[in-house]
Every structure is written in C-alpha cells, then in structure tokens.
Design a protein that fits this description.
The chain is mostly helical and about 70 residues long.
Length: about 70
C-alpha cells in the first residue's frame, strides 16, 4: 500500500470493487444460455484439432510402397 493512503480508504475501494463484481456476476447468470451453437462449434474444432494432431506423417501415409533397389 502506498504510504500516503489510508487503510480505511483502501478497504472501502476493495469493498466497492467486490460489490461491482458481484453485480456483474449476477447479471451474467441471468442471461439466457447461448451455448448450443458455441458448444457445437467448439467441440467440432476440438475434434478437428485432435484429428490433425493424430494424423500420421507424410512418410507413414504412402499409398504405394517405395521401389526396391
């Protein structure tokens, strides 16, 4: 804490900010859920990412075996 500030002012500012955050949280909880499209899109992107990560490397995906010398 800055030496020039009083502890009661500091405590009051924290109390005001906490009240603001509680108010914002309550307003957020009252919003109707929009998760249907967002959730489906999110899981589709996760599935795509997992497929890309687990895809074999180009050298392992050869369709025709290399010619023997």
């Amino acid at each position: 804490m800055h030496p020039g500030t009083h502890s009661d002012v500091h405590l009051r500012l924290h109390a005001l900010r906490a009240a603001e955050l509680r108010h914002e949280a309550a307003a957020f909880r009252l919003r109707p859920p929009r998760a249907n499209l967002r959730t489906r899109l999110g899981w589709s992107l996760v599935e795509l990412g997992l497929r890309l990560v687990n895809r074999p490397a180009m050298s392992e995906r050869r369709l025709v075996p290399p010619y023997a010398a």
